[in-house]
Design goal:
The structure holds 2 protein chains of 2 kinds. By secondary structure, chain A is mainly beta. Chain A is built from 7 helices and 30 strands. In chain A, the strands form 8 sheets. Chain A has a 5-stranded antiparallel β-sheet with strand order 10-11-12-13-14. In chain A, strands 17, 18, 19, 20 and 21 form a 5-stranded antiparallel β-sheet that branches. The chains are: A mainly beta, B mainly alpha. At the A-B interface, helix 1, helix 2 and helix 3 of A face helix 5, helix 6, helix 7 and helix 8 of B.
């Protein structure tokens, strides 16, 4: 009936993503129109015009069927981020996946070569659209877990010697994993026989005098150093410094070219340096200049690569790991100033790839709000906190970056439960989670909560946030990003 | 911009493609950017004659509907856009029509540059077709299925997510 292609596009771009997918099967011209990047962009821009209308909830269950091909995705609620329908999740093995839950397309992201070892560090992610380079970017903000008492404190030595690029612990089952540069694959190296398997993931690998070493500080503040040495082509010995003797190691199935000397030497400091470095290995040492640094890594979907950005001048170790909130070209987190530990809303500019600040609401006390939470509601940056009397104050910054535009509304629950807002439905209804258990809808006008009944919902689930139903592909599709 | 001359038109005459004449007052006509542009041009020239605007693409049936819409919206022109009463009226207004009429109305709104009516029609059509099957869409839009059975199976498979 409609022969004007422009008008046809006007109509079809207002359809939900699912209808568009179905109507690609109408005819060849429709398929061409509904698949072209320009159309996907137009569709996305229409959704973004009404940021509070087309949202879906992410529910996390132990057996996720979001994507049929991925039988089992375990992910952490606090580590998800979503922008334009693309949703970033981290699975149980710290791998990043970019999923469009609507079209079921997904893409595994490579690990950052600079990534910190997950066991020793915390990483928070954020994701957003950078209009400057017309690119989606993922930001990883990581810092060492300096408070974990089960690990030896990390010192400069840790950073210098432990080559994250070339050696990493592959899984949690306590194996030493060696990356063979020639073969470009991982193999296993037998651990010292006197070390308990379950414990040594807390040890660290390093290179001493051309040998692979492992050390761990024990509870009595003595340092065990294990040295693995290639004595000839077929024998490996373990040298225990403390006991001052060698033990033979029988290695089965280890390839001959698996020598340690050659493969690791290029990343090593000299023996003298190691000695100096070892002298830093002191669990009582309180000066850990490298440990408090906030590492910032940025992934570009267009380029498909990670890049280390200037580190953050703020203290992001605020007690809870949360994903960044993307609003207006910036990814936001709550953090503390390193100078006086006052709270601050920090904004990572995706174009310039550096941190700045957003003014907080003037009525909020500086000292407190780092323990609040950020989210996006109605396309605006929001901050909320539950108070002790079960009232949830939600601040909404109506005009981005304008301090005076922060507006407060309250959610008062007579049930005495905690309320975490997720999204708006229309102008007056807020969908949220009560006590991290139940989905509820709070009516701002009536001032009360109603339970939301979801059919076929698994018994156990978490609430990851929201996404919009777009057609944007997680594959490096340069064309299909939005235009601002 | 209207000129400072004394001439100021209060109404225009619009002619449909089937040669029917409609007298339209200026405020109503201004809902259409096409008509408004004609009026502004004439006012700048300082003419006092009643102007005739021929619309070669719009039949009188459809023009009647467009003008009905413009009249209603001219009444609310000073109100804010979120007026609930007007939204309700818009919906009731479009509900009466079949797809063929909606189509013609959309084309007329596009031709007469009546943006709000165009948006309204497009959204209304989108809302009413979103749950239809592929076969129903082909019927309504009079589209021939040009896929081979194999091609159709492939494209369905590619977009299997949309059929669940």
């Amino acid at each position: 009936m409609i022969h004007n292609e422009e008008i046809l596009e006007e109509i079809l771009s207002r359809l939900p993503a699912k209808s568009i997918g179905r109507f690609r099967c109408v005819s060849k011209p429709w398929r061409a129109l509904l698949s072209q990047p320009h159309f996907i962009k137009t569709h996305l821009n229409r959704i973004n015009d009404f940021p509070f209308e087309a949202q879906s909830l992410i529910l996390v269950t132990s057996q996720s069927n979001i994507i049929d091909d991925l039988s089992h995705i375990e992910c952490f609620v606090g580590k998800m981020a979503s922008c334009d329908g693309l949703t970033l999740i981290e699975d149980g093995e710290s791998s990043l996946l970019l999923i469009n839950p609507t079209t079921k397309e997904f893409e595994g992201l490579p690990k950052s070569p600079d990534a910190l070892e997950p066991r020793d560090s915390f990483t928070m992610y954020g994701m957003g659209y950078d209009s400057v380079s017309d690119d989606y970017k993922i930001v990883a903000l990581s810092y060492f877990d300096t408070d974990n008492e089960h690990e030896p404190d990390c010192t400069e030595m840790f950073v210098d010697v432990y080559s994250i690029k070339k050696v990493r612990l592959q899984d949690y089952s306590s194996v030493i994993v060696a990356f063979d540069l020639g073969e470009e694959k991982f193999g296993e190296v037998p651990p010292p026989s006197l070390v308990e398997d379950s414990e040594f993931v807390f040890s660290h690998l390093l290179m001493l005098k051309g040998c692979l070493c492992m050390f761990a500080s024990s509870s009595d503040y003595k340092t065990d150093i294990w040295l693995m040495k290639s004595t000839d082509e077929e024998r490996l010995v373990m040298y225990d410094l403390k006991e001052g003797r060698c033990n033979d190691i029988v290695v089965e199935n280890i390839p001959e070219e698996y020598g340690f000397g050659g493969t690791f030497i290029e990343s090593l400091v000299s023996p003298q340096c190691n000695i100096v470095a070892l002298s830093y290995f002191d669990t009582d040492n309180e000066h850990e200049p490298d440990c408090t640094e906030m590492f910032v890594d940025v992934y570009s979907i267009k380029k498909g690569t990670w890049k280390r950005a200037v580190s953050s001048p703020y203290d992001h170790s605020v007690g809870h790991v949360t994903s960044g909130v993307f609003v207006d070209g910036h990814i936001h987190w709550l953090a503390s100033k390193t100078s006086d530990y006052s709270s601050v809303i920090v904004a990572f500019d995706l174009g310039e790839e550096k941190f700045g600040e957003v003014p907080p609401p003037s009525l909020v006390e500086d000292s407190e709000f780092v323990f609040s939470h950020l989210l996006m509601l109605k396309g605006c940056l929001c901050m909320f906190a539950s108070s002790s009397d079960y009232k949830t104050d939600i601040w909404l910054m109506k005009e981005y970056g304008v301090k005076e535009s922060w507006t407060k509304f309250k959610i008062i629950d007579t049930d005495k439960s905690e309320f975490r807002p997720l999204c708006f439905v229309g102008m007056e209804q807020v969908v949220g989670v009560k006590d991290e258990e139940r989905l509820v809808m709070y009516d701002l006008k009536e001032g009360r909560c109603n339970d939301i009944v979801v059919e076929n919902i698994p018994e156990e689930y978490g609430f990851g946030g929201t996404f919009i139903e777009s057609l944007v592909s997680p594959q490096c599709n340069v064309e299909a990003t939005r235009n601002d | 911009m209207a000129s400072s001359s004394s001439s100021s038109l209060s109404r225009v005459v619009v002619k449909s493609s089937d040669n029917n004449l409609f007298v339209v007052n200026k405020k109503v006509a201004s809902q259409s950017q096409l008509l408004k542009q004609c009026i502004d041009n004439m006012e700048e020239k300082g003419t006092n004659d009643v102007i005739l605007i021929p619309l070669s693409n719009v039949t009188s049936n459809i023009l009647t509907l467009v003008l009905e819409y413009c009249e209603k919206h001219a009444d609310f022109a000073d109100d804010d856009n979120n007026n609930q009463e007007l939204k309700q009226w818009d919906h009731e207004f479009l509900k009466k029509f079949d797809y063929a009429t909606l189509n013609s109305l959309t084309m007329a709104a596009d031709y007469m540059v009546t943006k709000s009516l165009l948006n309204l029609c497009c959204q209304f059509i989108a809302d009413s077709i979103k749950d239809l099957t592929v076969q129903q869409i082909r019927q309504i839009f009079d589209i021939k299925n040009d896929f081979t059975p194999q091609e159709e199976a492939d494209i369905k498979n590619e977009n299997a997510w949309a059929f669940r």
